[in-house]
Specification:
Function: Catalyzes the folate-dependent formation of 5-methyl-uridine at position 54 (M-5-U54) in all tRNAs.
Domain MnmG N-terminal: 2-362
Subcellular location: Cytoplasm
Strand content: 15-25%
Strand order of the largest sheet: 9-10-11-12-8-13
Radius of gyration: 22 Å
Organism: Pseudooctadecabacter jejudonensis
Shape: globular
Distance between the termini: 28 Å
Number of strands: 16
Order of helices and strands: HEEHHEEHEEHEEEHEHHEEHEEHEEHHH
Largest sheet: 6 strands, antiparallel
Protein name: Methylenetetrahydrofolate--tRNA-(uracil-5-)-methyltransferase TrmFO
Helix content: 25-40%
CATH class of the largest domain: Alpha Beta
CATH architecture of the largest domain: 3-Layer(bba) Sandwich
Number of domains: 2
Number of helices: 13
Amino acid sequence: MAGSEAAWQAAQQGINVVIHEMRPKVETFAHRTGNLAEMVCSNSFRSDDDEQNAVGLLHWEMRAAGGVIMTTADAHKLPAGGALAVDRDPFAEAVTAKLTSHPNIQISYEEIDTLPTDGNWIIATGPLTSGKLADAIAGATGAEALAFFDAIAPIVYAESIDMGQAWRQSRYDKGETEEERTAYINCPMSKDQYDAFINALLAADKTEFKEGETAGYFDGCLPIEVMAERGRETLRHGPMKPVGLTNPHAPDVKPWAVVQLRRDNALGTLYNIVGFQTKMKYGAQTDVFKQIPGLQDASFARLGGIHRNTFLNSPTLLDDQMRLKSHPHIRFAGQITGVEGYVESAAMGLLAGRLAAAEMQGHTLAPVPHTTATGALVTHITGGAEAKTFQPMNVNFGLFPPVEGLKGGRRGRKDRYKAYTDRAKADWTGWLSQSSLDAA
């Protein structure tokens, strides 16, 4: 995501760009294709609400900047209530086609396994940076790359879901169309069924870690069994919460818990189990997931998995232009910088591409206002976060400077978020305009 966006932004500024992509010659655990911008963990870019949600605001900023990731996502979106979900394979194919056909972009399918000593580079290798390059980065920075583990949710064939038990409904009926309001498939559980499911989850065989690895999970992508280990009620207050849903098969019976599945392709033949990242072994997964009412006869297009995810201690290593302080001809972008999520990663690619292009054209862009979603993120990773406790971060309004005169707390949240987004849009528009004037 980040590398694709960085290349697009620099090329759109008139810079000749070479993308170095090791796939498909060198494969990773999680990827299935050689396409650029392949989506691995999920097909969702999360909320598209640009007035009340920080990630929706980030969508808005990237669209305003002509981002290839967001424009392509919009062209391949699927019904998902208030979220932006995409048909993942056509999306990646379209991004690849746009970059391949751009007159200022070349693509080299060769692995880079050392840090380049000259030229202008953006390293956007994501959560699965190859071992040799990761070692080279660690050697150059003088600090060990930090690591956590990202888990992948399973995908189910829609035809194998028992709709006599499950039903279609987005939480709180969100969405402007009937298709949006019925974007999710819901599988209800009684208290006894939930308790049996938790027991099976806790007892299931899990993937063992290799020697020297530690399970430093990011809280936004916890495996369900890890959540269950934190307390038996954790899942029903998390991805299995039953709120905002009414079972039409038993409208007077409130489910104790609900498992949601979200459409994963345009044909509607595949659904992913929302929030069900897992490190259970494959055989255990099928046994446990078939205990979910409606999935007792489920067929899986893909089971869950787990992979290592490395990231820099960016507050100590990167400057405010996203350059490696010890090697300023190298920038980093995307998840390796310590942001979490497709959109956040792509946004850091967008910014890195623009910063690099400006520098190569002989001028320096002004810092992005930290009142914007993009600015809040880059400020956080390049100095706003505490280096000693630095962990991957999703964009959220807690990273934004307060708007004076507004009430705090839950009651004032709606007005406060609208004020954040109004201010951000004005400041981002101004920054884009000034950036264009500087380039001219």
